[in-house]
Design brief:
Number of strands: 13
Structural class: alpha/beta
Helix content: 25-40%
Strand order of the largest sheet: 4-1-5-6-13-12-11-8-9
Radius of gyration: 17 Å
Order of helices and strands: EEEHEHEHEHEHEHEEEEEH
Strand content: 15-25%
Shape: globular
């Protein structure tokens, strides 16, 4: 059991819900599904608190990790990529931005495996110098519908569109197909791709929906939510297994 790699999964701030949580103490939460898929693939998931103002403790946590999984969630603060907030930008979590960007930069420096899911792809891109559309609908006219949110009656497993997977990419190797249908629950997206990243999945409207490192480091981000399909789709399951296998190698090193 001790040989299983430790996978860090950051949390998010629990925002007040009218009439329910306004009186609760400040809390950090995250969907159970991310921890379940990390465990099912052979990792030991570790919930990371948002200690944005205690980098010494955050670093101590980081040093015990063998891999980093960055989950989905609220919008990134446009200040992280040098922009003011547009009216269309949604709810943000500044503490989470600080923690995830710092963890990502440390992991890139040390070549620890990283897997970014939905928002996680955006975090990786911004951490390495890329930028985002704050709102695809208003800033990139003509896009396919990407904001198929459960709050708008869409199911989380609704397949919104296909993406084309690049030859030779880790995504293509895992899915073994040139195109795959994906779910889509986001309204931000990559505008300028970070210089050190390569695009490995492209939506029909040209939006980059998969990213990887160009130097062999296991650094993969996808703009969809594959954790929804891990239990039913063997190719999606393989993506998580590849990530955990890379983390196990990192642990050995």
């Amino acid at each position: 059991m001790s040989s299983r790699p430790i996978i860090g999964i950051p949390t998010q701030t629990l925002h007040a819900i009218e009439g329910i949580s306004t009186a609760l103490p400040a809390s950090w939460v995250m969907s159970q599904r991310y921890f379940q898929v990390a465990s099912a693939a052979g990792g030991v998931p570790w919930m990371i608190p948002l200690l944005h103002d205690d980098l010494a403790t955050l670093r101590a946590i980081y040093e015990r990790l063998d891999g980093l999984m960055i989950p989905g969630g609220v919008d990134m603060n446009p200040a992280t990529f040098g922009e003011g907030v547009r009216p269309e930008c949604g709810r943000i979590d500044p503490a989470r931005d600080v923690v995830e960007l710092q963890l990502t930069r440390w992991a890139v420096e040390d070549h620890k495996p990283i897997l970014g899911l939905c928002r996680g792809l955006q975090v990786i891109n911004v951490a390495l110098g890329g930028t985002l559309y704050q709102d695809l609908g208003s800033q990139k006219p003509g896009t396919v519908k990407h904001d198929c949110f459960p709050s708008e009656t869409y199911q989380r497993d609704f397949l919104a569109h296909e993406v084309a997977l690049a030859d030779g990419s880790r995504l293509r190797a895992a899915f073994e197909l040139p195109h795959v249908a994906v779910n889509s629950m986001h309204h931000q997206g990559i505008k300028d791709l970070a210089p050190s990243l390569v695009a490995s999945a492209i939506a029909p409207d040209g939006l980059v929906e998969g990213i990887e490192s160009g130097n062999g480091h296991f650094l993969v981000g996808v703009q969809w939510h594959p954790e929804v399909f891990e239990s039913t789709d063997p190719h999606t399951r393989q993506l998580f297994r590849d990530f955990i296998a890379a983390a196990a190698q990192s642990k050995t090193r």
